Amino acid sequence: MKTLLVAVNSQYVHTNLAVLYLKAASSKAGIDVKVLQFSVNEGLKQIFGGIVREKPDVVAFSCYVWNIEYVVKLIEDIKKADSGIVVIAGGPEISFDNGGLLSGHAGVDFLIGGEGEEKLPFLLKLLMEGKRPDKNENEWLMGYSVIEDLNQLPSPYLYIYKGSLKHKIAYLETTRGCPFHCAFCISSVSGGVRTFNPERVYRALEELVESGSEVIKFVDRTFNANEKRVLDILNHILKFSQKRVVFHFEIAPEILTEKTILKLADMPPGLVQIEAGIQSIHDETLGEVERFSRVDIAFTNLQRILSMGNIHLHVDLIAGLPFETYPRFKESFNRVYGLFTHHFQLGFLKLLRGTALREKSEHYGYRYRNYPPYEIISNRCLSANEVLVLKDIEACLDLFYNSGRIVITLKWIHYMLSGIEYFDFYEKLAYWMRTNGYLDKPVKVSDLYEILHIFIKKNFPVLPEGIIECMRFDYLRSMKNPSIPAFMRKEEDAARKRRNKKKVIEYRTELEQVLPRLKKIPMNDILHQIYVTTFKLPREAGIPADSDIAFDFGDICPVTGFSGTYQLGAKT
Ligand code: SF4
Fold first, then answer.
1. Do 44 and 74 meet the contact criterion of CB atoms below 8 Å apart?
2. Is the shortest distance between the CB of 187 and ligand 1 below 6 Å?
3. pLDDT in tens, 75-127
4. N or C, which end of the chain is more exposed by having fewer CB within 10 Å?
5. Fold entry, domain 3-142
Protein backbone atom coordinates (compact mmCIF):
# COMPACT_ATOMS: atom_id res chain seq x y z
CA MET A 1 0.00 0.00 0.00
CA LYS A 2 1.55 3.27 -1.08
CA THR A 3 0.77 6.10 1.33
CA LEU A 4 1.58 9.77 0.85
CA LEU A 5 1.62 12.32 3.66
CA VAL A 6 1.04 15.69 2.03
CA ALA A 7 1.84 19.11 3.48
CA VAL A 8 0.95 22.31 1.63
CA ASN A 9 2.92 25.04 3.37
CA SER A 10 2.09 28.74 3.30
CA GLN A 11 5.48 29.79 1.93
CA TYR A 12 8.38 28.13 0.15
CA VAL A 13 10.66 28.73 3.16
CA HIS A 14 8.31 26.97 5.56
CA THR A 15 8.51 23.27 6.39
CA ASN A 16 5.93 21.05 8.04
CA LEU A 17 6.99 19.19 11.17
CA ALA A 18 3.66 17.38 11.61
CA VAL A 19 4.07 15.14 8.56
CA LEU A 20 7.55 14.16 9.74
CA TYR A 21 6.14 13.18 13.16
CA LEU A 22 3.53 11.09 11.35
CA LYS A 23 6.13 9.48 9.11
CA ALA A 24 8.27 8.61 12.15
CA ALA A 25 5.27 7.18 14.04
CA SER A 26 4.16 5.14 11.00
CA SER A 27 7.65 3.84 10.47
CA LYS A 28 7.81 2.77 14.14
CA ALA A 29 4.62 0.80 13.50
CA GLY A 30 6.27 -0.86 10.51
CA ILE A 31 4.42 1.18 7.87
CA ASP A 32 6.33 2.89 5.14
CA VAL A 33 4.96 6.28 4.03
CA LYS A 34 6.28 8.98 1.75
CA VAL A 35 6.21 12.69 2.62
CA LEU A 36 5.51 15.31 -0.05
CA GLN A 37 5.83 18.99 0.84
CA PHE A 38 4.53 21.78 -1.41
CA SER A 39 3.79 25.46 -0.91
CA VAL A 40 0.53 27.22 -1.78
CA ASN A 41 2.47 29.29 -4.32
CA GLU A 42 3.06 26.24 -6.49
CA GLY A 43 -0.54 26.23 -7.69
CA LEU A 44 -3.18 23.53 -7.53
CA LYS A 45 -2.39 21.85 -10.85
CA GLN A 46 1.25 21.37 -10.00
CA ILE A 47 0.46 19.99 -6.54
CA PHE A 48 -2.23 17.72 -8.02
CA GLY A 49 0.25 16.40 -10.60
CA GLY A 50 2.89 15.84 -7.93
CA ILE A 51 0.47 13.71 -5.90
CA VAL A 52 -1.28 11.73 -8.66
CA ARG A 53 1.92 10.87 -10.54
CA GLU A 54 3.02 8.96 -7.43
CA LYS A 55 0.10 6.55 -8.04
CA PRO A 56 -0.76 6.39 -4.31
CA ASP A 57 -3.26 4.08 -2.63
CA VAL A 58 -3.70 6.47 0.32
CA VAL A 59 -3.20 10.24 0.55
CA ALA A 60 -3.23 11.93 3.98
CA PHE A 61 -3.38 15.74 4.20
CA SER A 62 -2.20 17.96 7.03
CA CYS A 63 -4.81 20.76 7.20
CA TYR A 64 -4.37 24.33 8.45
CA VAL A 65 -6.10 27.67 7.87
CA TRP A 66 -3.62 28.54 5.13
CA ASN A 67 -4.14 25.39 3.07
CA ILE A 68 -7.59 23.97 3.78
CA GLU A 69 -9.22 25.61 0.76
CA TYR A 70 -6.51 24.10 -1.45
CA VAL A 71 -6.96 20.73 0.20
CA VAL A 72 -10.73 20.77 -0.42
CA LYS A 73 -10.11 21.33 -4.15
CA LEU A 74 -7.21 18.87 -4.33
CA ILE A 75 -9.33 16.13 -2.77
CA GLU A 76 -12.07 16.67 -5.37
CA ASP A 77 -9.55 16.53 -8.21
CA ILE A 78 -7.71 13.50 -6.82
CA LYS A 79 -10.93 11.53 -6.48
CA LYS A 80 -11.85 12.42 -10.05
CA ALA A 81 -8.46 11.18 -11.22
CA ASP A 82 -8.76 7.93 -9.26
CA SER A 83 -11.78 7.30 -7.08
CA GLY A 84 -9.99 4.32 -5.50
CA ILE A 85 -7.47 6.52 -3.67
CA VAL A 86 -8.27 6.59 0.06
CA VAL A 87 -8.17 10.16 1.39
CA ILE A 88 -7.41 10.97 5.04
CA ALA A 89 -7.35 14.47 6.53
CA GLY A 90 -6.05 15.66 9.89
CA GLY A 91 -4.71 18.81 11.52
CA PRO A 92 -6.16 21.81 13.39
CA GLU A 93 -8.59 22.75 10.61
CA ILE A 94 -10.48 19.49 10.80
CA SER A 95 -10.09 18.76 14.53
CA PHE A 96 -13.19 20.75 15.47
CA ASP A 97 -16.72 21.33 14.12
CA ASN A 98 -16.94 17.73 12.82
CA GLY A 99 -14.13 18.27 10.40
CA GLY A 100 -14.86 21.91 9.49
CA LEU A 101 -14.80 22.50 5.75
CA LEU A 102 -14.30 18.78 5.19
CA SER A 103 -17.33 17.79 7.28
CA GLY A 104 -19.45 15.59 5.00
CA HIS A 105 -17.10 16.10 2.04
CA ALA A 106 -17.77 13.22 -0.34
CA GLY A 107 -14.10 12.84 -1.23
CA VAL A 108 -12.80 12.33 2.30
CA ASP A 109 -12.72 8.78 3.61
CA PHE A 110 -11.38 9.41 7.12
CA LEU A 111 -10.88 12.35 9.44
CA ILE A 112 -8.36 12.37 12.26
CA GLY A 113 -8.87 14.87 15.10
CA GLY A 114 -6.17 16.17 17.44
CA GLU A 115 -2.64 14.81 17.47
CA GLY A 116 -2.33 12.01 14.95
CA GLU A 117 0.79 10.03 15.86
CA GLU A 118 -1.19 7.13 17.34
CA LYS A 119 -4.27 7.40 15.20
CA LEU A 120 -2.73 7.50 11.72
CA PRO A 121 -0.61 4.32 12.09
CA PHE A 122 -3.65 2.59 13.63
CA LEU A 123 -5.80 3.53 10.63
CA LEU A 124 -3.13 2.68 8.05
CA LYS A 125 -2.66 -0.74 9.64
CA LEU A 126 -6.37 -1.45 9.36
CA LEU A 127 -6.35 -0.38 5.72
CA MET A 128 -3.33 -2.56 4.97
CA GLU A 129 -5.22 -5.50 6.40
CA GLY A 130 -8.13 -4.68 4.10
CA LYS A 131 -10.30 -3.57 7.04
CA ARG A 132 -12.12 -0.36 7.93
CA PRO A 133 -12.54 1.24 11.36
CA ASP A 134 -15.79 0.33 13.12
CA LYS A 135 -18.11 2.98 14.58
CA ASN A 136 -16.26 3.29 17.91
CA GLU A 137 -12.89 3.42 16.23
CA ASN A 138 -14.15 6.07 13.86
CA GLU A 139 -15.39 8.18 16.75
CA TRP A 140 -12.01 7.85 18.43
CA LEU A 141 -10.26 8.81 15.20
CA MET A 142 -12.39 11.92 14.72
CA GLY A 143 -12.41 13.08 18.35
CA TYR A 144 -9.91 15.62 19.65
CA SER A 145 -7.15 13.99 21.68
CA VAL A 146 -3.49 14.55 22.45
CA ILE A 147 -0.44 12.37 23.06
CA GLU A 148 0.12 12.31 26.82
CA ASP A 149 3.72 11.09 26.83
CA LEU A 150 5.55 12.94 24.07
CA ASN A 151 8.76 11.06 24.78
CA GLN A 152 7.36 7.82 23.41
CA LEU A 153 7.16 9.46 19.98
CA PRO A 154 9.99 8.68 17.58
CA SER A 155 11.98 11.70 16.46
CA PRO A 156 10.80 13.52 13.32
CA TYR A 157 14.21 15.12 12.93
CA LEU A 158 15.73 11.85 11.69
CA TYR A 159 14.21 12.73 8.33
CA ILE A 160 15.90 16.09 8.15
CA TYR A 161 19.21 15.46 6.45
CA LYS A 162 22.44 17.41 6.44
CA GLY A 163 22.05 20.43 4.16
CA SER A 164 18.40 19.64 3.32
CA LEU A 165 16.96 22.85 4.80
CA LYS A 166 19.17 25.44 3.08
CA HIS A 167 17.16 28.68 2.62
CA LYS A 168 14.31 27.21 4.66
CA ILE A 169 13.09 27.71 8.21
CA ALA A 170 13.56 24.71 10.51
CA TYR A 171 11.02 24.10 13.26
CA LEU A 172 11.74 22.59 16.63
CA GLU A 173 9.22 21.55 19.21
CA THR A 174 10.33 21.13 22.80
CA THR A 175 6.85 21.35 24.32
CA ARG A 176 3.24 21.02 23.22
CA GLY A 177 0.35 23.03 24.63
CA CYS A 178 0.38 26.29 26.54
CA PRO A 179 -0.06 27.07 30.23
CA PHE A 180 -2.41 29.94 29.34
CA HIS A 181 -5.95 29.95 28.02
CA CYS A 182 -6.34 32.87 25.62
CA ALA A 183 -9.83 32.61 24.21
CA PHE A 184 -8.76 33.40 20.63
CA CYS A 185 -5.96 30.83 20.46
CA ILE A 186 -6.04 27.21 19.39
CA SER A 187 -3.09 26.40 21.65
CA SER A 188 -5.29 26.96 24.69
CA VAL A 189 -7.45 23.97 23.74
CA SER A 190 -5.12 21.08 24.57
CA GLY A 191 -4.82 22.13 28.24
CA GLY A 192 -1.43 22.30 29.99
CA VAL A 193 2.10 21.88 28.76
CA ARG A 194 3.69 18.54 27.82
CA THR A 195 7.45 18.43 27.41
CA PHE A 196 10.07 16.51 25.49
CA ASN A 197 13.11 15.31 27.43
CA PRO A 198 16.09 17.70 27.28
CA GLU A 199 18.32 15.03 25.67
CA ARG A 200 15.87 14.75 22.77
CA VAL A 201 15.79 18.50 22.40
CA TYR A 202 19.59 18.78 22.34
CA ARG A 203 19.91 15.95 19.80
CA ALA A 204 17.29 17.62 17.61
CA LEU A 205 19.15 20.92 17.87
CA GLU A 206 22.33 19.29 16.56
CA GLU A 207 20.40 17.78 13.66
CA LEU A 208 18.67 21.02 12.74
CA VAL A 209 21.87 23.06 12.91
CA GLU A 210 23.41 20.56 10.47
CA SER A 211 20.36 20.88 8.17
CA GLY A 212 21.75 24.12 6.75
CA SER A 213 18.77 26.19 7.90
CA GLU A 214 19.70 29.70 8.99
CA VAL A 215 16.63 30.14 11.19
CA ILE A 216 15.51 27.56 13.75
CA LYS A 217 12.09 28.44 15.14
CA PHE A 218 10.97 26.95 18.42
CA VAL A 219 7.25 26.30 17.95
CA ASP A 220 6.70 26.12 21.72
CA ARG A 221 3.74 28.36 22.41
CA THR A 222 5.30 30.05 25.46
CA PHE A 223 9.00 29.31 25.44
CA ASN A 224 9.58 30.94 28.82
CA ALA A 225 6.85 29.06 30.69
CA ASN A 226 9.49 27.17 32.73
CA GLU A 227 12.56 29.12 33.85
CA LYS A 228 14.92 26.16 34.30
CA ARG A 229 14.11 24.79 30.88
CA VAL A 230 14.66 28.17 29.21
CA LEU A 231 18.01 28.65 30.92
CA ASP A 232 19.16 25.14 29.99
CA ILE A 233 18.20 25.58 26.35
CA LEU A 234 19.75 29.06 26.12
CA ASN A 235 22.95 27.70 27.65
CA HIS A 236 22.92 24.88 25.15
CA ILE A 237 22.44 27.01 22.05
CA LEU A 238 25.43 29.14 23.02
CA LYS A 239 27.58 26.40 21.52
CA PHE A 240 26.12 27.21 18.09
CA SER A 241 27.13 30.86 18.20
CA GLN A 242 29.66 30.39 15.39
CA LYS A 243 27.25 28.47 13.15
CA ARG A 244 25.51 31.38 11.36
CA VAL A 245 22.14 30.30 12.67
CA VAL A 246 19.43 32.26 14.50
CA PHE A 247 17.11 30.79 17.14
CA HIS A 248 13.60 32.22 17.26
CA PHE A 249 11.42 31.98 20.39
CA GLU A 250 7.88 33.06 21.22
CA ILE A 251 7.64 34.35 24.76
CA ALA A 252 5.18 35.81 27.23
CA PRO A 253 7.04 38.99 28.27
CA GLU A 254 5.19 39.46 31.56
CA ILE A 255 6.54 36.21 33.01
CA LEU A 256 10.18 36.70 32.03
CA THR A 257 12.25 36.14 35.14
CA GLU A 258 15.30 38.13 36.19
CA LYS A 259 17.55 35.14 35.54
CA THR A 260 16.15 34.68 32.05
CA ILE A 261 16.64 38.35 31.18
CA LEU A 262 20.23 38.22 32.44
CA LYS A 263 20.86 35.06 30.41
CA LEU A 264 19.40 36.70 27.32
CA ALA A 265 21.74 39.62 27.88
CA ASP A 266 24.65 37.15 27.64
CA MET A 267 23.65 35.89 24.21
CA PRO A 268 25.95 36.89 21.34
CA PRO A 269 24.35 39.52 19.03
CA GLY A 270 21.97 37.95 16.53
CA LEU A 271 21.91 34.43 18.00
CA VAL A 272 18.41 34.86 19.44
CA GLN A 273 15.24 36.46 18.08
CA ILE A 274 12.22 36.98 20.28
CA GLU A 275 8.56 37.32 19.40
CA ALA A 276 6.37 38.67 22.18
CA GLY A 277 2.59 38.91 22.17
CA ILE A 278 1.09 42.03 23.74
CA GLN A 279 -2.28 41.81 21.91
CA SER A 280 -3.89 44.68 23.88
CA ILE A 281 -2.95 47.05 26.68
CA HIS A 282 -6.45 47.13 28.16
CA ASP A 283 -7.23 45.06 31.23
CA GLU A 284 -10.89 44.77 30.34
CA THR A 285 -10.04 43.25 26.95
CA LEU A 286 -7.30 41.01 28.28
CA GLY A 287 -9.50 39.78 31.10
CA GLU A 288 -12.32 39.03 28.68
CA VAL A 289 -10.08 36.81 26.55
CA GLU A 290 -8.60 35.18 29.68
CA ARG A 291 -5.18 36.55 29.01
CA PHE A 292 -2.78 37.63 31.72
CA SER A 293 -2.89 41.38 32.12
CA ARG A 294 0.38 42.52 33.57
CA VAL A 295 0.99 45.00 30.82
CA ASP A 296 3.36 47.29 32.73
CA ILE A 297 5.64 44.39 33.62
CA ALA A 298 5.58 43.20 30.01
CA PHE A 299 6.62 46.64 28.74
CA THR A 300 9.39 47.00 31.32
CA ASN A 301 10.82 43.61 30.36
CA LEU A 302 10.63 44.36 26.65
CA GLN A 303 12.37 47.69 27.16
CA ARG A 304 15.16 45.89 29.00
CA ILE A 305 15.57 43.41 26.16
CA LEU A 306 15.68 46.21 23.60
CA SER A 307 18.24 48.15 25.56
CA MET A 308 20.58 45.12 25.54
CA GLY A 309 20.95 45.53 21.77
CA ASN A 310 21.79 41.87 21.09
CA ILE A 311 18.32 40.51 20.36
CA HIS A 312 15.95 41.15 17.46
CA LEU A 313 12.57 41.86 19.04
CA HIS A 314 9.21 41.40 17.36
CA VAL A 315 5.94 42.36 19.10
CA ASP A 316 2.35 41.50 18.19
CA LEU A 317 -0.90 43.39 18.69
CA ILE A 318 -4.33 42.09 17.67
CA ALA A 319 -7.10 44.32 16.30
CA GLY A 320 -10.67 43.22 16.94
CA LEU A 321 -10.51 41.82 20.48
CA PRO A 322 -13.57 42.27 22.72
CA PHE A 323 -14.18 45.81 24.02
CA GLU A 324 -11.30 47.20 21.99
CA THR A 325 -13.00 50.13 20.25
CA TYR A 326 -11.18 52.22 17.65
CA PRO A 327 -10.00 54.82 20.25
CA ARG A 328 -8.92 52.03 22.61
CA PHE A 329 -7.06 50.24 19.85
CA LYS A 330 -5.33 53.52 19.10
CA GLU A 331 -4.06 53.58 22.70
CA SER A 332 -2.74 50.03 22.36
CA PHE A 333 -1.07 50.95 19.07
CA ASN A 334 0.59 54.09 20.46
CA ARG A 335 2.00 52.31 23.48
CA VAL A 336 3.37 49.33 21.54
CA TYR A 337 4.74 51.48 18.71
CA GLY A 338 6.49 53.68 21.27
CA LEU A 339 8.66 50.73 22.26
CA PHE A 340 10.37 51.03 18.84
CA THR A 341 10.97 47.31 18.57
CA HIS A 342 12.57 45.88 15.44
CA HIS A 343 9.26 44.58 14.15
CA PHE A 344 5.71 45.51 15.10
CA GLN A 345 3.11 43.12 13.77
CA LEU A 346 -0.44 44.37 13.69
CA GLY A 347 -2.64 41.29 13.30
CA PHE A 348 -6.40 40.98 12.93
CA LEU A 349 -8.48 38.66 15.05
CA LYS A 350 -9.23 35.31 13.48
CA LEU A 351 -12.18 33.38 14.86
CA LEU A 352 -10.46 30.02 14.67
CA ARG A 353 -12.29 26.72 14.90
CA GLY A 354 -12.18 25.23 18.36
CA THR A 355 -11.53 28.53 20.18
CA ALA A 356 -13.69 29.92 22.96
CA LEU A 357 -14.03 33.27 21.19
CA ARG A 358 -15.54 31.64 18.11
CA GLU A 359 -17.99 29.79 20.37
CA LYS A 360 -19.02 33.12 21.93
CA SER A 361 -18.86 35.15 18.73
CA GLU A 362 -22.56 36.04 18.79
CA HIS A 363 -22.18 37.45 22.28
CA TYR A 364 -19.64 40.03 21.04
CA GLY A 365 -21.45 40.66 17.77
CA TYR A 366 -18.60 39.29 15.68
CA ARG A 367 -19.01 39.25 11.93
CA TYR A 368 -16.21 37.26 10.39
CA ARG A 369 -15.45 35.61 7.11
CA ASN A 370 -16.90 32.13 6.76
CA TYR A 371 -13.78 30.96 5.01
CA PRO A 372 -10.22 30.60 6.31
CA PRO A 373 -8.57 32.29 8.07
CA TYR A 374 -11.97 33.44 9.48
CA GLU A 375 -10.80 37.01 9.93
CA ILE A 376 -12.95 39.65 11.62
CA ILE A 377 -15.08 41.96 9.46
CA SER A 378 -16.58 43.84 12.39
CA ASN A 379 -17.85 43.44 15.93
CA ARG A 380 -19.91 45.46 18.36
CA CYS A 381 -16.96 47.77 19.11
CA LEU A 382 -15.36 48.09 15.69
CA SER A 383 -17.19 48.81 12.43
CA ALA A 384 -16.28 47.22 9.11
CA ASN A 385 -14.99 50.61 7.89
CA GLU A 386 -12.82 51.03 10.97
CA VAL A 387 -11.35 47.57 10.37
CA LEU A 388 -10.60 48.60 6.78
CA VAL A 389 -8.78 51.72 7.98
CA LEU A 390 -6.77 49.58 10.40
CA LYS A 391 -5.94 47.27 7.48
CA ASP A 392 -4.47 50.22 5.59
CA ILE A 393 -2.54 51.26 8.69
CA GLU A 394 -1.20 47.72 8.95
CA ALA A 395 -0.10 47.88 5.30
CA CYS A 396 1.76 51.16 5.96
CA LEU A 397 3.31 49.83 9.13
CA ASP A 398 4.63 46.85 7.17
CA LEU A 399 5.83 48.93 4.24
CA PHE A 400 7.60 51.64 6.18
CA TYR A 401 8.26 50.69 9.80
CA ASN A 402 8.71 46.95 9.39
CA SER A 403 10.95 47.39 6.36
CA GLY A 404 13.48 48.31 9.06
CA ARG A 405 15.04 50.69 6.53
CA ILE A 406 13.64 54.05 7.66
CA VAL A 407 14.35 53.86 11.35
CA ILE A 408 16.17 57.16 11.94
CA THR A 409 13.86 59.07 9.59
CA LEU A 410 10.71 57.86 11.31
CA LYS A 411 12.09 58.57 14.78
CA TRP A 412 13.06 62.06 13.66
CA ILE A 413 9.65 62.69 12.10
CA HIS A 414 7.94 61.55 15.31
CA TYR A 415 10.25 63.76 17.36
CA MET A 416 9.56 66.79 15.17
CA LEU A 417 5.82 66.10 15.13
CA SER A 418 5.70 65.40 18.82
CA GLY A 419 2.18 66.83 19.09
CA ILE A 420 0.92 64.16 16.71
CA GLU A 421 0.42 60.67 18.09
CA TYR A 422 1.99 57.72 16.28
CA PHE A 423 -1.39 56.28 15.39
CA ASP A 424 -2.65 59.59 13.99
CA PHE A 425 0.46 59.86 11.82
CA TYR A 426 -0.13 56.38 10.40
CA GLU A 427 -3.83 57.05 9.97
CA LYS A 428 -2.97 60.10 7.85
CA LEU A 429 -0.27 58.20 5.96
CA ALA A 430 -2.66 55.30 5.32
CA TYR A 431 -5.35 57.63 3.97
CA TRP A 432 -2.85 59.37 1.69
CA MET A 433 -1.38 56.06 0.50
CA ARG A 434 -4.87 54.71 -0.22
CA THR A 435 -6.05 57.81 -2.10
CA ASN A 436 -2.85 57.94 -4.14
CA GLY A 437 -3.11 54.28 -5.15
CA TYR A 438 0.06 53.09 -3.41
CA LEU A 439 -1.77 50.41 -1.45
CA ASP A 440 -3.13 48.76 -4.58
CA LYS A 441 0.19 47.80 -6.09
CA PRO A 442 3.55 46.45 -4.97
CA VAL A 443 6.00 49.13 -3.83
CA LYS A 444 9.75 48.64 -4.27
CA VAL A 445 11.74 49.06 -1.06
CA SER A 446 14.00 51.61 -2.73
CA ASP A 447 10.91 53.71 -3.61
CA LEU A 448 9.70 53.92 0.00
CA TYR A 449 11.98 56.87 0.76
CA GLU A 450 10.65 59.09 -2.02
CA ILE A 451 7.02 58.15 -1.32
CA LEU A 452 7.45 59.07 2.34
CA HIS A 453 9.22 62.28 1.34
CA ILE A 454 6.33 63.33 -0.94
CA PHE A 455 3.83 62.51 1.81
CA ILE A 456 5.72 64.61 4.34
CA LYS A 457 6.11 67.57 1.94
CA LYS A 458 2.39 67.55 1.16
CA ASN A 459 1.10 66.97 4.69
CA PHE A 460 3.71 68.45 7.00
CA PRO A 461 5.38 71.24 4.99
CA VAL A 462 6.68 72.74 8.22
CA LEU A 463 9.17 69.90 8.60
CA PRO A 464 12.61 71.10 7.57
CA GLU A 465 14.70 69.47 4.88
CA GLY A 466 16.62 67.54 7.55
CA ILE A 467 14.41 64.67 6.52
CA ILE A 468 16.51 64.10 3.38
CA GLU A 469 19.68 63.75 5.41
CA CYS A 470 17.96 61.26 7.72
CA MET A 471 16.75 59.30 4.71
CA ARG A 472 20.18 59.31 3.10
CA PHE A 473 21.63 57.93 6.32
CA ASP A 474 18.89 55.26 6.56
CA TYR A 475 19.30 54.35 2.89
CA LEU A 476 23.06 53.89 3.06
CA ARG A 477 22.92 51.99 6.33
CA SER A 478 20.14 49.60 5.34
CA MET A 479 20.40 49.26 1.55
CA LYS A 480 24.22 49.08 1.63
CA ASN A 481 24.35 50.79 -1.73
CA PRO A 482 25.92 54.24 -2.27
CA SER A 483 23.87 54.77 -5.44
CA ILE A 484 21.04 56.60 -3.71
CA PRO A 485 17.72 57.67 -5.30
CA ALA A 486 17.93 60.89 -7.35
CA PHE A 487 15.78 63.03 -5.03
CA MET A 488 18.37 62.79 -2.22
CA ARG A 489 21.46 62.70 -4.41
CA LYS A 490 23.90 65.60 -4.18
CA GLU A 491 26.28 64.59 -6.97
CA GLU A 492 26.56 62.32 -9.98
CA ASP A 493 28.02 58.82 -9.71
CA ALA A 494 31.46 59.65 -11.09
CA ALA A 495 31.86 62.63 -8.74
CA ARG A 496 30.63 60.53 -5.81
CA LYS A 497 33.22 57.83 -6.51
CA ARG A 498 36.03 60.39 -6.78
CA ARG A 499 34.99 62.07 -3.57
CA ASN A 500 34.68 58.75 -1.74
CA LYS A 501 38.19 57.76 -2.78
CA LYS A 502 39.52 61.09 -1.57
CA LYS A 503 37.77 60.71 1.80
CA VAL A 504 38.87 57.10 2.29
CA ILE A 505 42.49 58.11 1.60
CA GLU A 506 42.13 61.08 3.97
CA TYR A 507 40.76 58.88 6.77
CA ARG A 508 42.67 55.69 6.00
CA THR A 509 44.65 55.63 9.25
CA GLU A 510 41.58 56.33 11.35
CA LEU A 511 39.59 53.70 9.43
CA GLU A 512 42.31 51.10 9.90
CA GLN A 513 42.26 51.76 13.63
CA VAL A 514 38.55 50.96 13.96
CA LEU A 515 38.55 48.33 11.19
CA PRO A 516 41.92 46.54 11.34
CA ARG A 517 40.92 44.16 8.54
CA LEU A 518 41.33 47.05 6.09
CA LYS A 519 45.11 46.93 6.60
CA LYS A 520 45.22 43.73 4.55
CA ILE A 521 42.86 44.82 1.78
CA PRO A 522 43.88 46.60 -1.46
CA MET A 523 42.43 50.09 -1.96
CA ASN A 524 40.08 48.99 -4.77
CA ASP A 525 38.46 46.43 -2.47
CA ILE A 526 38.26 48.93 0.37
CA LEU A 527 36.34 51.28 -1.93
CA HIS A 528 33.77 48.55 -2.53
CA GLN A 529 33.28 48.01 1.20
CA ILE A 530 33.70 51.46 2.72
CA TYR A 531 31.71 54.53 1.79
CA VAL A 532 32.46 57.87 3.46
CA THR A 533 30.12 60.80 3.14
CA THR A 534 29.39 64.02 4.95
CA PHE A 535 26.12 64.53 6.78
CA LYS A 536 24.39 67.60 8.05
CA LEU A 537 21.98 65.61 10.15
CA PRO A 538 19.53 67.40 12.39
CA ARG A 539 20.74 67.11 15.99
CA GLU A 540 17.38 65.62 16.98
CA ALA A 541 18.10 62.57 14.80
CA GLY A 542 20.30 61.29 17.58
CA ILE A 543 23.36 60.92 15.34
CA PRO A 544 26.36 63.27 15.44
CA ALA A 545 25.49 66.29 13.34
CA ASP A 546 27.79 67.77 10.72
CA SER A 547 30.03 64.70 10.47
CA ASP A 548 31.87 62.51 8.04
CA ILE A 549 30.46 59.03 8.49
CA ALA A 550 31.94 55.81 7.14
CA PHE A 551 29.54 53.01 6.18
CA ASP A 552 31.11 49.59 6.30
CA PHE A 553 29.16 47.44 3.84
CA GLY A 554 31.39 44.50 4.74
CA ASP A 555 30.16 44.38 8.33
CA ILE A 556 26.45 43.78 8.77
CA CYS A 557 24.81 43.83 12.22
CA PRO A 558 23.21 40.41 12.84
CA VAL A 559 20.43 42.02 14.91
CA THR A 560 19.33 44.91 12.68
CA GLY A 561 20.81 44.06 9.28
CA PHE A 562 22.44 47.53 9.14
CA SER A 563 25.94 48.12 7.88
CA GLY A 564 28.50 49.26 10.45
CA THR A 565 28.75 53.07 10.78
CA TYR A 566 31.64 55.09 12.16
CA GLN A 567 31.92 58.79 12.78
CA LEU A 568 35.24 60.10 11.44
CA GLY A 569 37.26 63.15 12.35
CA ALA A 570 34.62 64.16 14.91
CA LYS A 571 33.94 67.81 14.11
CA THR A 572 31.26 68.25 16.72
S1 SF4 B 1 -1.96 33.27 22.68
FE2 SF4 B 1 0.03 32.52 23.38
S3 SF4 B 1 -0.13 32.56 25.61
FE4 SF4 B 1 -2.21 32.61 24.85
S5 SF4 B 1 -2.90 30.47 24.76
FE6 SF4 B 1 -2.07 31.01 22.75
S7 SF4 B 1 0.05 30.39 22.80
FE8 SF4 B 1 -0.67 30.47 24.91
1. yes
2. yes
3. 999 999 999 999 999 999 999 999 999 999 999 999 999 999 999 999 999 99
4. C
5. Rossmann fold (3.40.50)
